[in-house]
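Reading group handout, session on sequence-to-structure problems. Before we discuss, look at one worked example. The prompt was deliberately terse, the way you'd type it at a terminal:

> structure KilA-N domain-containing protein

The input record follows.
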Amino acid sequence: MSNSNTNNLNCPVIAGISITVDKEGRYNLNALHKASALGDHKRPSKWLASQPTKELIAELENSQSPSTGLGQNLIKVIKGGISSGTFAHELLAVSYAGWISPKFQLMVNQVFLDYKKGELKNTLEPSKSYLPEYRQAKAIELSVRALDKMFSNLPHLSEQSKQAIYADTINPIAGKNVIPLPKLENKTFSAGEVGEMLGVSSNKIGRIANKLNLKTDEYGIFVLDKSRSSDKQVESFRYNEKAIDVIRNHLINKEIA
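And the output record:
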């Protein structure tokens, strides 16, 4: 049984995914996201939450004429049922596709044009011209899922470290720098490097840091590093210059005492 809110017959199909259209002609953004084969970072909710998107929607709302039949309802969310999803005006749907990637936008735009002209090609597989990108997108999606799962077990890992790991993993697959490397505002040092500066062992640096509660954003960052006792990757804290000053003063005060 079909949902009366959507037209599930002869929908445009992209990469084997039917892009359902509601009765006002709005396109299902969730279906477009699925067709792109990318991860959660490209979900419609991420796009809708951005300031440029909010400005785009506001501009389109202001330019709408009564003849469009949509008025202010450029976005509609259907919850539950077989036709659930976020449905958007065609111009917004194409813009969302461009936010996913320029190549995907061109593909979506052509499919939408064919759909409106009645030249719909209802293929069940990704088009040959898009197949390499489709496979690439699937590889990126699987990599992002694996990294998200890994990060869920590393709650202290800094956002800078996460971004660097995402970039090192995703960029080689994409063949370009789709994720920029983070800019490090302050230089940080490992416990071993701090120990060499202050003439003590790295273990003592760690003990002092724990005692003084220095392993916070104020005094450095958590990064992913190789364990000294195995090949396992573990969270490791790197100290900034402020932390080094605190540790140095602590050691001096201990000597005086």
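Points for discussion. First: The chain has ten helices and nine strands. Second: The domain at 6-129 is CATH 3.10.260 (Mlu1-box Binding Protein; DNA-binding Domain).
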